[in-house]
Amino acid sequence: MNSSYENKITIKTWAEEDRPREKLSIQGRRALSDAELVAILIGSGSTTESAVDLSKRILNSCKNDLNALAKLSIQDLSKFKGIGEAKAISIIAALELGRRRKESDFNELEKIFTSKDIYNLLAPNFLDLPHEEFWIVMLNRANKVIEKMLISQGGLSGTVADPKIIFKAAVSHQAVNVILAHNHPSGNLKPSDADINLTKKLVAGAKILDLAIIDHVIFTDKGYFSFADECLL
């Protein structure tokens, strides 16, 4: 009679105002904890724990970091008892919608004046990525954004940025200024020797084509590093 299973309190036995769905309806979405919001997504827990308890366990494995949670794959989430493929997909889809909402907010930016503007423009593209990607932003003479473009993607430790692809894109879009950007999934903001050498190579090549590389920004989930701000161009 004193088993841990029998002492578990399921959502259905809570006071109505404490159930996640009812709590959201009555008190509003901001009243819910991260675990309660995830619990709504997964709907039910397992035979031994409630959806909220299961959600707390999943979040605890990510040190309660939603960015870390967003990086988990279907296979990663399915390792938790009570999470099948359908529930894992629901969690991933919800977090992806949140990322896209941020991206749509930043799409209103028209001109680039500072490294912070670059960060705001591209941060949604790099957020939660478990691998490296290399992007460029093409600007006109007034530094208005013409287009942002994914150039390459790779593994955890690097990706190859082909100068021919970068310069072909810039010329075809009639760009005047170009911004380079890539991410470090490790969280290390310091540019590598390869980052520095590639930047020098691209800056030199751009001059031949009457283009200007005005910055190279390294992204992590916690911040960014600007070559221009550090006078490394």
Description:
By secondary structure, the chain is α+β, with helices and mostly antiparallel strands. The chain folds into two domains: 4-103, no CATH class; 109-226, Cytidine Deaminase, domain 2, CATH 3.40.140.10. It is built from ten helices and five strands, in the order H-H-H-H-H-H-H-H-E-E-H-E-H-E-E. Strands 2-1-3-4-5 form a five-stranded mixed sheet, with helices on both faces. Strand 1 (133-139) and strand 2 (145-153) form a beta hairpin.
Q: How many domain regions?
A: 2
Structural class: alpha+beta
H/E order of the elements? HHHHHHHHEEHEHEE
**How much of the residues is beta strand, in percent?**
5-15%
Spatial strand order of the main sheet: 2-1-3-4-5
CATH homology-level superfamily of the largest domain? Cytidine Deaminase, domain 2
DSSP summary, beta strand count: 5
Instruction: Tell me about the largest β-sheet.
Output: 5 strands, mixed
CATH class wording of the largest domain: Alpha Beta
Short description:
With 233 residues, this protein is α+β, with helices and mostly antiparallel strands. It has helices spanning 4-7, 20-27, 34-42, 51-61, 66-70, 74-77, 85-106, 115-126, 163-172, 193-208, and strands at 133-139, 145-153, 177-183, 212-219, 224-226.
Keywords for this structure?
single chain, 233 residues, alpha+beta, Cytidine Deaminase, domain 2, 5-stranded mixed sheet, disordered N terminus
